[in-house]
Write a structure and sequence with these properties.
homotrimer; about 130 residues; alpha+beta; five-stranded antiparallel beta sheet; elongated
């Protein structure tokens, strides 16, 4: 298991949504592990964040912020935690095979934070 | 790890929601693996799909399509990807014990696709 | 793999939402396993329940019930199953290291049930 701090690679920085692209970091850790196949389990260490696999396209995150604001208004108490409950489990599991993450051509592993993180941190556990 | 194409077993084919029942395929792969206990990690290879454990009941998927249309209108740009973000991580993990998936009597492993897939594909990784 | 019945530790008992705190039980199982690092995969055995990591704060669950009622009205058919689909995969995965769950200071492992369970049950699988 490895716990690392994220070098900032900002995919989107919106008022209520910060998205960091951590794909390269996950790939580097996987390569360094020498493992061939299994599951890379990536989870946030921040309280109000999730990790998701998605395309990295900044317009999309604006649309996502709009949708989430429609569902849970910005001024609603506990908004960030309600969003986390709505979006589901905190982490994402990415299968890997022959030492490579099984991701679509445009898919990236993204850390989605509902509060701009001072020090974004995530956990990577490789199994298999 | 095994990556297989899905033989079509359509649980529901709605205008914006295709649901394939892949339980038998997951069971067959598990039986063939000779593994006793652990986690079967099932994830879609399509970009705008999720795998979920649910009962297979066609009326339910109509209700689900109605709900999702209420939350994200059919004409909204990037609708399929917004739905994926809303519904959470792409895959589902199913514990297995004594070589059998731990599923409730009516529960099935379903591939839920927001775009009718030409060639639905999923990934099964068995750990444990 | 271990399947255990939950001793009742009720975090919240609302009309349409029962929340049980199973953190101590997961910790005890983990300690008993002697495992050092990996993933604790916790999933509900009830049909209309999810396991999530969240802070245990009763006011929050009232806000959550309000949100879910706004999204899926109480009288809607199949409400519980629609909520499960909306909230995502059934289980949550918690990394552990040096025999300890990697949870934030206030985070707990919660079994969230949309129907008051007669006999709440969950499955714990430790991998790694």
């Amino acid at each position: 298991m490895t716990s690392v701090e994220v070098p900032y690679s900002i995919a989107s920085a919106l008022p209520s949504l910060t998205v960091l692209d951590i794909t390269n970091e996950v790939r580097r850790e996987l390569a360094g592990s020498g493992r061939e196949s299994g599951i890379a389990y990536v989870s946030p260490l921040d309280d109000v964040a999730v990790v998701r696999v998605q395309e990295r396209e900044s317009g999309f995150f604006c649309d996502l912020e709009d949708l989430l604001t429609r569902l849970v208004a910005q001024e609603e108490p506990e908004r960030e935690r309600l969003l986390c409950m709505l979006l589901g489990p905190r982490g994402e599991q990415i299968p890997f095979s022959r030492g490579e993450l099984c991701l679509g051509r445009w898919q990236r592993s993204l850390l989605v934070d509902f509060r701009p993180p001072d020090e974004p941190r995530w956990n990577l556990t490789l199994l298999g």
